[in-house]
Amino acid sequence: MANKPKRRGTWDAVIGLLFLGVALLLPVALISYHPRDIPAWVPLISTTTVSNPVMHNLCGVIGAIVAGYLYFLFGAAAYLWIIFFAGYGLAKLMIRDFSLRERAGWGFLCVLCGACLLQLQPWFLHGWEKAFRIEGPGGWVGKWVGEKAFGGPLGPVGAPVVLLLIYLVSLILATGFHPILVGRKMWNDWRKARAEAEKKRLAEMEETERMEAEQRKLAKQAEKLERQLRKKPAKGEDAPAEEPSAAPEPQAESFPEPRIFDATAPSAKKPSLADIEANRKKRSEPRPGLVGGLALENYQLPPLDLLDPHDEEGRKPADPSELLGVQNTIIDTLAQFGIKAQPGDITRGPTITRFEVYPDKGVRVDRITALERDIARATRAQRINILAPIPGKDTVGIEIANSSKVKVTLRELLETEDWLQTGAKLPLALGKDVYGKTIIADLAKMPHCLVAGTTGSGKSVCINSIIASLLFRYTPEELRFIMIDPKVVEMQTYNELPHLVTPVVTDPKKVLLALRWVVDEMEQRYQIFAKTGVRNIGAFNDRPLPKSQAELDAEAAAKGEEESPEDAPETVTEDTAAEPDAPEEDEEEEETKPISVPRDSDLIIPDRMPYIVVIIDELADLMQTAPADVESAIARITQMARAAGIHLIVATQTPRADVVTGIIKANIPSRIAFQVASGLDSRVILDQKGAEKLLGQGDMLYLPPASSQLQRSQGVLVTDDEIHRLVKFVAEQAKPKFESSIHDKLNSPTIDEEDVTDEDEELVDKVLEVMKQERRASTSLFQRRLRLGYTRAARIVDILEQRGIVGPRDGAKDREILIDLDSID
To answer: Rounded CA gap, 284 and 699, in Å?
Structure first.
């Protein structure tokens, strides 16, 4: 098998030489042909029994026979065989993998059409019929195919036209010779040669002659412009305001010198370990007065030693020559399709390299976008993406995946000045963009985020990095989590965190209870804000705290000492004479003062409030359980919870329109999209295509808040071992203290759905009809309307409560209806 290409090339050379030999001998045999050289025993072409005593044909008897048959069959068209044998022979020798089978048939058809055309023309070569004793200038083929087959049906005009078209088509297919392209190339070469000759002639002229020629040229342009200005303006047009003195000469557009930026190189400016540790200790200082009794005096934020160090030595700098070579390939590919462009900057990122080009004036950027596949073929790239244009620039960017990716670790981002000096209230370390800039997002400004991507694209790692960023920044006093994990396995590691409001919710049927607690907490916070006269959680936590009773007593005592010194003279007046009776009046006032009894409904105003971050790891499972209720709960939270310090992060791996609905998208402005399966999924997430062209493994598109421009970046990497060490360090300092109001509801015994019989389902449907009519729900109402016993009616109410249709029991009051009854079919 290894010798097959070599053997094939050898046979191509042998066949080429044989064809060239035939092309050399064939004209000799045809020119020296005489009819009497053919022996009498040769059929068809032998016309006499007397042969020439001396052989006239220079190729002997064989040459005479071959020439005789060619003249007999094709007439004067026999000379066309010389051209094809010579052309095919040279092609076999010079062109590698030249296929003769594809062209031989078209060559034979070309010779046939040539014989027919020679037979139909009335001007020349008709004397060959007697000289060579053949049927005519076209031989036997011209006589029977040209005259009989084509000349009879098509006539003297139609037959030559049809045969000429067939001749030209077969000639093009046999030789690969395109007359239009060749003519255009000859015309361009002639123009180029003429321009070079003119340039050479001007270069050889003396300086004075060249100056005189240029002056004459400028004078002609000035005269032409003056004639145009003298013309009267058309009707309805304004005359020109002023006349230019000379014709402006077009100037070539100048572009900046291309530069190469390597964003993967190690940063030279890094904060010291002492600054990082001082920042951590400063953030760990306790802040008393938070709600929930979570004041932790000795809590310390996790150190960065829990994370794996990033390998800076393994990052090799980019090869400038290699990058410039790829850019030149892009420029040449665009030039092949008639698009002129100039090279721009080159930026090498962790995952992709962006090559910028400056299109010439008049070039539409859509033409460059249409050449995406051709550029990928030329650069041998696995997948490319074209930004036409780059937002904020006048260049077009071609993004090509790197052969080797550079990991962006969480520790690398947390050791940067951007993280330590950030002013974000809830900073999130997301990754690095193409230019190597650290992306630190503020969840408080988002204020909610949607994360989507297929399995293995980096979605779960992104959620872990968001949680880790908040754990490195905030104590349990400042931040609380509510984690919802229908897939059960993604967030079980965080069950020991003291930041949790409730254990990780894994039952999709109980998710509504957790979301309703968030809604209740939001409404309660807004009531506290209204009572204290603030607008949001930031103003509430920054307000001056009220003084305690001990501080007030100490200030009063100090003030009393200043107003009544010991050495002050004591005077008695009419006003002070009644001082002994004052205590009696105070006692009467205290007796008549109403006594205030504290109630459960009274608001408890804490000194500060923690932020609450709700994380939903898989939205699709929840939308299958109760789509209307989940959608309304998420919409309520995302619409109003920003000022209350409650933020929502929703993740899904199936970004369909029935999962990420329009209401959810409208209330979650910030998006993070990883690789998805199709452009339709990308439109669901980002409202535009692009996510389907990502490379996976952390390659993402980030839509910042209050922006419509996507940022392509490499997501941060945090491993499972790092998460385990981080959770272990945090859990050793404090135990989780869950909110009793939501924890008791989630841990309450539930009715197994398998125990719900068909009779129970029928009763549930009847109960819903009663609720639609009465607009209230209670056990006694169902007993009376459906004639049920107390046990049966109470079981139906428990089923409705478990399914999230009615609220929990509140004394003798009716149950709260939690859903829209009109939406139930």
So the answer is: 34
pLDDT at residue 818, rounded to an integer: 77
Q: What is the pLDDT of residues 342-397, one digit of tens each?
A: 898 888 888 888 999 999 888 888 889 888 889 999 988 878 888 888 888 888 99
- d(C-alpha 458, C-alpha 698), whole Å: 5
> What is the predicted pLDDT for the residue at 542?
87
Tokens 């980030």 correspond to: 702
CA distances from 100 to 5, 92, 111, 173 (A): 17, 8, 16, 12
**456 annotated as belonging to a binding site for a ligand:** yes
Q: Does residue 662 have a known ligand-binding role?
A: no
The 10s digit of each residue's pLDDT in 708-751 is 788 888 999 999 999 999 999 999 988 888 887 776 666 655 55
Per-residue pLDDT tens digits for 519-578: 889 999 999 999 988 999 989 988 887 766 556 666 667 766 555 544 444 444 444 444
- Domain boundaries, given as residue ranges, for the chain: 4-184, 319-401, 410-537+606-733, 749-823
Distance between CA atoms of residues 247 and 778, nearest Å: 92
Mean pLDDT of the chain: 77
The reply, when asked if residue 719 is annotated as ligand binding, is no
> Which listed CATH number (1.10.10.10, 1.10.287.1080, 3.30.479.30, 1.10.1200.10) goes with 749-823?
1.10.10.10
- Residue 225 has which token pair? 């412009």
Helices (H), 176-287: 179-204, 207-230, 273-283
10 Å Cβ neighbour count for 51? 17
Binding site annotation covers 455?
yes
Q: Measure Cα distances from 341 to 253, 357, 420 in Å.
A: 12, 6, 42
Is position 454 annotated in a ligand binding site?
Answer: yes
Residue 676's CB is within 10 A of a number of other CB atoms, namely 25
Rounded to the nearest 10 degrees, what angle do helices 60-74 and 80-94 cross at? 110
Q: At what angle do helices 790-802 and 758-774 cross, to 10 degrees?
A: 80
CATH of domain 410-537+606-733: 3.40.50.300
Rounded (10°) angle between helices 101-120 and 60-74: 70
Q: Was 185 annotated as part of a binding site?
A: no
Domain 319-401 grouped into CATH 3.30.980.40: yes
